[in-house]
Specification:
This protein is α/β, with parallel strands linked by helices and 465 residues long. 39% of the residues lie in helices and 14% in strands. The protein has three domains: 64 residues, Winged helix-like DNA-binding domain superfamily/Winged helix DNA-binding domain (Arc Repressor Mutant, subunit A); 111 residues, Aspartate Aminotransferase, domain 1 (Alpha-Beta Complex); 221 residues, Aspartate Aminotransferase, domain 2. The strands form four sheets. An eight-stranded mixed β-sheet has the order 4-11-10-9-8-5-6-7. It has a three-stranded antiparallel β-sheet with strand order 12-13-15, with helices on one face. A two-stranded antiparallel ribbon has the order 1-2. It starts with 12 loop residues before the first helix and ends with a helix.
Length: 465
């Protein structure tokens, strides 16, 4: 006979009975095949309603702890495969995680966004409105390319900021550009070779290699990637950042852009991936038109992200496909689910449509202009100013500093790290190290602590002496 203490039960009675019986089964007090009291007997012995016992038994049956036989009753199931794990139990396995990034007192190459600059109050307000007004839409599966509302909002943003006229259905939303690179590889075919700028974004090389893509490198001059380098590479797809190259900061002039387009038009299977990752931040003059907007032959795949304009942790990026590739995408890859949540898609659409995003960009452009000027002025007025040269551009969130020193780049970075300062060398980004230019370093000012710039200048000067 099952007997339990029913005094001071603070939860539904059926749930308490269910837990008691389950505990006895798991602990072995009730053996497999053992018959349980009938509902009436259990209820009568404990002064409880039969409905309460029925509910408890039904829950145990649904979870596999108990089974019933017609006209015979309820029996304990064989649950040998089940184990009871105490709540306080923990396990630590021999799993080698990547090393955590080192933390420095002063990080001059940190490309993250200062959290104080994210529009938290506006984002929270819009999120609440979306949750209140779009309950049904939030629970519906998103199309593979993303919700139409956010794609239409992005199309309007591109028309306003970049002079691009695109159909929202050309736009594909994804959780970060790294995910979208994978879609492009599937879209264009894994048999193509890709060309990357040298120096360039090393993670790009790592991603392509994971897909077993053959990668070539093309050198750069003062106007960006060279067409001769492209031709020598023999690649069919080139991945470039013409608006503000990372890490050199070079902006490709219109003449070179047309040359690269001409290269792509020489063969049917050639394409250009145009990465416009921080295009919102141009500080002087009008931006040069995108390759996508001057492409008349559907050769350019345009990519952008909200990592620099809002925050990289949001993981919302997008690509704009030429018409024939957009059709191919929906014919071949529409089985994929959109990787960005509906909550974030609708909130971002509202941020753009209601003008908050434009105001944020204008505010941040002014902030970064002042920040960059203050940093450069501080460097040039310090002792370090006589031992360096600033190589800046009218766009983006970083610039280069050339140090006049006989020390190797590795020696400079190592000495600075010992003093709690990180400053990455341009040479670290060369995909063919033997072609690297020494003594150039990257200063990223999107999340730099202005109050420590003078200290950093003094330290850099001291290690050069």
């Amino acid at each position: 006979m099952l007997t339990y203490d029913f005094e001071n039960v603070k939860e539904p009675l059926y749930e308490y009975i269910y837990k008691c019986i389950k505990s006895d089964i798991v602990s072995g007090n009730l053996k497999p095949g053992e018959k349980l009291p009938s509902k009436r007997t259990f209820a009568h012995n404990n002064g409880i309603s039969t409905i309460t016992i029925q509910n408890a038994y039904d829950q145990l049956i649904s979870e596999g702890y108990v089974y019933s036989l017609p006209k015979k009753g309820y029996f304990v199931a064989d649950i040998d495969v089940r184990t009871s794990t105490p709540k306080e139990a923990k396990i630590t396995l021999d799993i080698k995680l990547p090393e955590e990034k080192a933390v420095y007192d002063i990080d001059l190459s940190n490309n993250e966004i200062n959290p104080d600059n994210f529009p938290f109050s506006i984002w929270a307000k819009l999120s609440r409105e979306i949750i209140s007004n779009k309950k049904k839409e939030l629970m519906e599966a998103s199309p593979t390319g993303g919700k139409y509302e956010v794609r239409a909002a992005i199309a309007e943003h591109l028309k306003s900021f970049r002079g691009m006229l695109v159909d929202p259905n050309q736009i594909v939303i994804g959780a970060g550009t790294e995910y979208l690179y994978g879609l492009i590889i599937q879209l264009l075919g894994k048999d193509k070779s890709y060309c990357i700028e040298n120096p360039g974004y090393k993670k790009l090389l790592q991603i392509y290699k994971q897909y077993n893509i053959e990668c070539k490198f093309a050198d750069m001059d003062d106007m960006g990637i060279t067409v001769n380098g492209l031709k020598k590479s023999g690649a069919e797809v080139v991945h470039i950042s013409p608006n503000h190259h990372f890490p050199t900061g070079i902006t490709m002039p219109a003449s070179r852009r047309y040359e690269v387009l001409a290269w792509a038009n020489e063969k049917d299977d050639r394409y250009i991936i145009e990465d416009d990752y921080d295009s919102e931040f141009r500080y002087n003059g009008k931006p040069i038109p995108t390759l996508f907007s001057i492409d008349a032959c559907e050769k350019v795949i345009y990519m952008n992200t909200f990592s620099k304009s809002l925050t990289s942790t949001m993981r919302i990026s997008y690509m704009v496909l030429p018409v024939h590739l957009a059709n191919r995408f929906y014919e071949q890859l529409s089985f994929y689910s959109c990787t960005v949540s509906n909550f974030e898609q609708y909130t971002l659409a509202a941020l753009i449509n209601k003008g908050y995003f434009e105001k944020h960009i204008n505010r941040m452009r002014l902030h970064y202009t002042r920040q960059r000027k203050l940093i450069i002025d501080t460097i040039m007025k310090s002792k370090l100013g006589k031992k360096c040269e600033i190589i800046e551009n009218d766009s983006g969130l970083h610039f280069l500093i050339k140090l006049y020193t006989h020390l190797s780049d590795q020696e400079v970075t190592n000495r600075l790290k010992k003093k709690g300062i990180q400053m990455k060398a341009l040479s670290e980004y060369y995909l063919e190290p033997e072609k690297s230019k020494p003594h150039y370093f990257i200063i990223n000012y999107s999340n730099i602590d202005i109050s420590k710039i003078s200290e950093a200048c003094e330290t850099i000067y001291s290690i050069l002496e």
